[in-house]
Design brief:
The chain has 190 residues and is mainly α. It has ten helices and no strands. It is rod-shaped and about 100 Å long. The termini are far apart.
Length: 190
């Protein structure tokens, strides 16, 4: 689509020159703009804007050879596309920019409370006591699985048993640990 600005040129010769220029270089101009903007809509807009800018340069560009004219058009489109790209990125950055004080006020305090830390520490101590009360094989399997985060296959290779056996041992170890925890062994109720 030829820009309306070209159709509005009063001088017939200049209007025809710009129409021919647009028809001749549109594809290469659009491809160059798209290479920068990665959007067909934005590339089309950059080409339109470029040809509007070229209208002001008619007295200068009308004298250029075809090679120089092609370079002039492509460079104009490239610069317009770069300007458009920068403007678009600045708008995006402004949308996501923030006032540091505003962010600090709106952030939830993510640090655990002292009471939470204390309860977590108690739970870890209880688990440590229970882990030490378990048979050595169960203790090794639970540590490998949950502390070292090893796979069943890795644990099986370490112990010289199959993965299926590892899953069975893990089930038994968890069950025994749960029974000890539930039975109050840690708190001296048993």
């Amino acid at each position: 689509m030829i820009p309306v600005a070209i159709a509005a040129i009063e001088n017939d010769y200049e209007r025809e020159f710009m129409r021919n220029l647009y028809d001749k270089f549109y594809r290469i101009a659009e491809a160059r703009a798209y290479a920068i903007l990665h959007s067909h809509e934005d590339a089309e807009e950059a080409v339109q804007d470029s040809f509007v800018k070229l209208i002001d340069k008619i007295p200068k560009i009308i004298k250029l050879s075809n090679e120089k004219l092609a370079a002039y058009v492509v460079i104009t489109v490239k610069n317009t596309a770069i300007d458009s790209f920068r403007k678009r990125n600045n708008e995006v950055n402004r949308k996501f920019s923030f006032d540091e004080d505003e962010v600090v006020e709106n952030l939830a305090d993510t640090k655990p409370l002292p009471e939470e830390l204390y309860l977590k520490q108690e739970e870890l101590e209880e688990l440590s006591i229970i882990l030490n009360l378990l048979p050595e094989k169960y203790k090794i399997i639970l540590e490998a699985k949950y502390v070292l985060e090893q796979s069943d296959k890795e644990i099986g290779e370490m112990l010289g048993v199959s993965e299926k056996s590892v899953r069975m041992y893990l089930t038994r170890a968890r069950r025994q640990a749960y029974e000890l925890l539930k039975g109050g062994v840690v708190h001296g109720t048993k």
